[in-house]
Task: structure prediction
Amino acid sequence: MALIELRWHGRGGQGAVTASQALATAAIIEGRYAQSYPEYGAERRGAPVRAYTKISTDPIMDREPVINPDIIVILDKSLITIPDVLSGLKSNGYVVVNSRTPVTVNGARVVYLDATGLATKLLGKPIVNTAMLGAVARVMGDFMSIDSITAALAQYFGGKVLSINRELVLKAYEATTL
Amino acid sequence: MIEKAVGKSTGPTRVALTGNYAAAYAAKMADIDLVAIYPITPQTTIAEKLSEFVADGELAAELIHVESEHSALSATIGGAAVGARAFTATSSQGLELMHEILHIAAGLRLPIVMAVPSRALSAPISIHNDNSDIMNARETGWIMLNASDAQEVFDMVIQAFKIAEDPRVLLPVMVTYDGFVVSHTVEGVELPDAEAVRSFIPKGKWHALDPSRPSSMGPIAGPDWYYEIKFGQYHAMRDSIKVIAEVMDGFGKKFGRNYSPVVGYMMGDADFAVVTYGVTWGFVKTAVDRARSMGIKAGAIKLNVIRPFPSDAVISYLRGLKSFAVVDRAIYYGAPSPGPVYTDVASALFMSGHAVPALNVIHGIGQRTMYINDFVEVFKELTKLDESKVIFMGVRE
Amino acid sequence: MSSPPSWKELVIGGTIIEPGSTVNVRTGTWRTKKPVINQDACTRCRICWEYCPEGIIQELDKPFVSRKGIKYAVTYEVNYDYCKGCGICANECPVKAIDMVSEYE
Result:
């Protein structure tokens, strides 16, 4: 059984939960097994939020929180200073962070993307989740096709918002370098 | 780029849905005629999805937005009383507010189906998951199915309509599952063809009100009548286990996913077992694998049916064991054991004349995080268990 | 009367499938006081007929001429088979034309 686990960190309103769900949806579209669930608190804008995505070749039995992620996605750079955010990353794991400038994390491969800049330009709002999905797709390489992600978005957005977000995912994918 | 090779599965086509959406899709495919619903966390997304289906013209049901759960179930009873296939859903305090009406739905023998993503009870306020709410509803006369994931939620809502409307049963059915951990988790769900669902659950007929055959539903019954009417209800509930097993069997044959009132995992040669319901099942199955790798002959069972309590099947799994544990995610204050299902299992075992040392594990209260290794520890404890006792797992002393 | 039926013979959910069965229950036997209408004092205002919770004040097509010579087309009478003797009619009557009379005198 091969399993990839992601942990998403964001603040209420940035869309970490939706991004985590859309990634699981994309994996299910590709025929894999996946789970996405949030660590719910009392939802409020600005509060730290975490969500998990698990993707596997086999049915996933348990619903443990993701303790040792392969990929940590950070939607708000300020969260990186919270000790728990970087905890448990697998050796050779990735940190994908929303930042305009390069970031270094000891013992991790870091990929950064100015998701705030891209989202503000296309959506007119700093809702960075779909841009970060583009960056995550780049990190996942052969394992996740960007087309599956844009297809999955249709389950979460409609009309013009869908088409803008699809464009945003593709732009973010292009803009991310490993 | 991530180096891990994760190949494609060859499994069937699945749709990404949360547990709550699975319940809403099942109700839609069951072609419900009426839904009366009041939103409460974590049930709200069922109310939202059904409202969306009705607004978009995908579901031709009468949707009643009521002012409380008490009214929600009352209006649902009204619908079922005139022969409508009626559905509702609630959680936690909402189920408590419905409590009075739960008894009435069952006493009137109306085949209502209700989805209950379970949540802890106040006070203190908790929006998180445990099973305190549904356990309080066990003696209200409702059949209670219990799902462990979104696929089971979908499948059991379909099964629930067939069980409820069976002329040998005619009782309301609750499909219970864990709030958030199932209700808000996105997973792959196989959605059958809507036509296949409709042919599996053609709409039933029952003692509904009909102007061409005037009748009076819900009258007073004096001491000369009440006892016999309630004995009929007791009988219907007791005998429903056969119909439930039959419906689950028929479901497996038609849709290829097999169900039975109780399921076992690695029970063939097991010496030690953990009895579960809800999401605990998935954790414990993995714990069984880990315990087996340590040389412990571990196994697990899951209750797909909580009411009527499937005593015969449970005893057939447990009677030869060296010891077993029941994991309960609710606390019964002042009861002989704090775990509600432990109490059920213990009395079933006592009545069957078997005695096996049994551990009552309380865990996941108010959605306290559970880990697979917690249950590996339970198996280790079972190997040493010589008399029954209670563990409150993970509580800070 | 034969013994009541077994639980197996009862209609599911206690539903009553024999319409109009309430007429078999003579609730008039519950009464301790009965309303008596003074037909001469009654002005045929219909208030007792409206207020009666059991609907047992009957409006009959019986012409009546009072002692003062007032002609009425209808007469109100109590159906004592079902009147429970609650006294609401006597309490509501604006001309105090209804007396509650003990059943035991």
